[in-house]
User: What shape does this take?
Amino acid sequence: MRYSQMLLPTTKETPSEAEVVSHQLLLRGGFIRKLSSGIYTYLPLGLAAVQKVAQIVREEMNRAGAQELLMPMVQPADLWKESGRWRKYGSELLRFVDRHERESCLGPTHEEVITDLARRELQSYRQLPMNLYQIQTKFRDEIRPRFGLMRGREFIMKDAYSFDVSDEAAEESYRKMYDAYHRIFDRCGLDFRAVEADTGTIGGSFSHEFMVLAQTGEDTLAICDQCSYAANVEKAKVVLPEPAPPGPEQPEEIRKVETPGMKKVENVAGFLHVRPESIIKTLVYIVDGEPVAALVRGDREVQPVKLKNLLGAAEVELGDDQRIYDLTKLPIGYLGPVDLPIKMVADQEVMRMANCVCGANEKQFHLTGVQPGRDFQPAVVGDLREVSATDSCPACGGALRLTEGIEVGHIFKLGTAYSEAMNATFQDGEGRENPFVMGCYGIGVSRVVAAAIEQNHDRNGIVFPLPIAPFQAIILNLGVNSEQITAAAEKLYHDLQQRGIEVLYDDRDERPGSKFKDADLIGIPCRITVGKTFEQEGKVEMRQRSDGTTETLAIEGAADIIAREIKNRLASFGRNKQTLAE
RNA sequence: CGGGGCGUAGCGCAGCCUGGUUAGCGUGCCUGCCUUGGGAGCAGGAGGUCGUAGGUUCGAAUCCUACCGCCCCGACCA
Assistant: This one.
């Protein structure tokens, strides 16, 4: 591609709307333009990057035995009513009625459509297993779109769905996808981890997220460096040391103490001269409309997803003061588990505490000398709090590390939730009808591009991993008015293309500075400069964006050397092999 | 949905508080000269319903009201 003919509007200044680095660089580099909140046009360069990722995804999905198809984006409400998600999915599902007053929605995901297809087209166990995928634009009406391509309302997703005869067979399909995902992100040149994840609204029995490690990530991960354990903090188990430390020799009796204006743990701790570890924190959540008190140690934090799972609830939210007061008439800020008239759920750690401080359920008062088990008995006790960096790995006991991650892929074992709801069955060898055992597997293709940039950039711009770079090489013609230089640059451009290299040829009549800056900004891995050195010595310069290595090459044979270098570097990606450990 | 901020040329911003000729600066864009290894220089030029609607006023980018759009924070620790 000739730069002079390409729509590639780079800017020197950072648009004020962009906060995170990938968003800034995608705008500055002329990859995307915003149409409205969370909705972007992919300009030619941005589309090229997306397509590079999509192609890797496609190759690895095909290699894993999946077949590509393309489903509609507009979906009838009836299907969603069948699965029950027309009610459950919430306002992220963009709904509308057409001219015939038919209710429809824009597909945020395609379980309903694919299950409908499967029940029509797959009748026999002989046709299974089957794995079908598409790469397509999804629409989710996010609460708050942000960070450019990281959390858009409209985005490009690869979604795959597997159909199997049994649980065991479905697990094999899952394992294949797990391996394929490793190959995909590895080939993309990303630093990532597969982590155990919560199954979320999509439902199902177990699940892994693929996380690109980057500070701008919206998720927090607990990772063990000693073993392979890694989990989203929404899921990461807290394992308490065994045996439990012995209780106090003399359990105190309850005393009521005045604590004027002391609502926060740290205030109470300071005022009563106790450590936060001795305080029981009582938080009221609204769980499916009912108030529930969650108890954790004063220095701990409730993990709401764990709370939700522990209670088997559909929706958990922390109530605001007014709402809780309306529901319970309780004195917010002075709550405690002793004689609390609402349902209580305690973190396992709370039951190990002794001589605790907690709210007295009376304004301006707390209790001391509280003994869990003696003075109160929660309805449910379990793992409720978020892991911390001081906890140990639930798998090996080693040290845990917390780190931020960007979710680029998520795989689920769905089981028969959808096939049963939608009556999607096949006939087995004995002539019986059975529901398909399903799995579903997503990759945020456009988000992969953003995540790659978050992970690979410097002060001059993007440093694309070679496999997903929109072009592999860029030729800078620094003498467009020199016939000699231009002839050499043009020839190199053609020679590299003939050798299968994806080349952007900067033939613009611009000063060298602009060309260097633009080449750095858009992150093309291999830069070839044809300029003064060529006029003087007949040589061109090859420089690698990633490590800055520079070689000066005689023009004769340069195309071969450059092409070989790019192919060698390309071959170094996708070498890591990992499989799902059972 | 709650809180905060912003909306003036393609982009980045000033002007608004304290209303008053023709609305400015930087950059980008166009023309010419010059220059050509890290976003040069000089000269000339095009480009604006000051987000929209209404109001106050002799007069509104500026004051008031409503609406629209965008961004950030929150929706998780009492």
